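Hi again,

Forgot to attach this to my earlier email, sorry! This is the prediction with 5'-deoxyadenosine bound. I've pasted everything inline since the attachment limit keeps bouncing my files.
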Amino acid sequence: MTRKLFIKTYGCQMNAYDSARIADVMAPHGYSLVDDAAGADMVVLNTCHIREKAAEKVYSELGRLRRAKEEKAANGERMLIAVAGCVAQAEGEEMIVRAPLVDIVVGPQVYHRLPEMVAKLSRGEGRALDTEFPAMDKFDALPGTKTAPGPTAFLTVQEGCDKFCTFCVVPYTRGAEYSRSVAQIEAEARHVADLGVKELTLLGQNVNAYHGIGPDGEPWGLGRLIRRLAKIDEIARLRYTTSHPRDMSDELIDAHAHEPKLMPYLHLPVQSGSDRVLEAMNRGHTAEDYKRLVERIRRARPDIALSSDFIVGFPGETDEDFEATMALIRDVGYAQAFSFKYSPRPGTPAAVARKQIADNVKEDRLAGLQDLLRRQADTFAAACVGREMDVLFEHRGRYADQLVGRSPYLQPVHARAPERLLGRLARVRLVEAKSNSMAGELADMAVAL
Ligand code: 5AD
Ligand code: SF4
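Structure tokens for the complex follow:
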């Protein structure tokens, strides 16, 4: 009997990866994915805790699911509702108490146990809660994916974080840092390569802190792992995210210099350009350290494009601190970036700091910062016009004969191209910068025919 499984994913790419694996875990039990909660036999909310009022948003989403669950019940059927991810981890028991609608609360480290939890429920053993950080590796328990993920795929290589930035919940929700073994990652990479994947994005909350056990029994760094994965012929492109400036090792920078499959694009969050704020954030580096690091990376790979995360209005941030962030942005020059108003997360040190910044001040600073970042993004896009780049075509475009893919810089590029180029790399000349994408033309007309 097939059952309908609906998964709603919030937040980061790690959650996107986890959602795919949740589908893999449930597939052998007859669950196949649908894209609507209405009528589903099981709904999983794979939640994220990083944004403001994350838990409240999940409770309101649950409120909206009540009707669907009731309709199902009116037909004598059951809709199982599971909350997974970081809000599940953070709320735990509280969610069982507060949301009677929820059947299962499962943390990010134990979702491989979902089938067991579902089985218990159907035996009438009551609602299930599991937010452990078990010693046993969930990755050992996960089945290989059966469905072709398309030309690009995520692969989690590292989880958790020991950095304890004072604004961040990740060390609490995802736990201590853990790296998968090289052998396990390589096996998964080869498996998805066989299914047609051409581009792998290696994921981790602190991915460049990777230190998994290599085939020689020694811990390997991310640079070495990347070089190993680059040997898989079918894999044409490698990326990784998210990195911490303190973990950019020489080996990793060297991989950028010498491994052509490693894409010239790096998301390297700095958060602030003020040393005082960086210190209060417990980032473990200064603005100068970061700028020197960027210089070294650019020497290794001159055409690399950088991206970052910024927080404005961190407790105690003065106009001068904010100006230091603007100055850093001007100095470094970003192709792309994410920026946020600081918002307190319960349980983190910064949440109880005195000198919280007024919201209107945060708004003003964010607007100024985003304006600067937008101009830099536009400049970067304009500089790409006229250049030829490899584009990996991922899906059909809005118009007939059109395919959409990504440039090495992660820019969406659309071009007129024959269907058979879907899932393949082609040389494309970028002809126009649109607001969030690039228009291109196949460079080699022979390929176009
Ligand atoms: N307030 C605002 N932004 C935050 N981030 C993490 N925690 C907070 C917070 N409390 C941002 C950081 C991080 C990104 C994923 O989210 O910039 O790099
Ligand atoms: Fe959070 Fe990243 Fe800092 Fe870890 S390094 S605490 S994940 S912001």
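Residues 161, 163-165, 168, 170-171, 205-206, 244 surround iron/sulfur cluster (ligand 2) (CB under 6 Å). Residues 359-384 form the longest helix (26 residues).

That should be everything now.

G.
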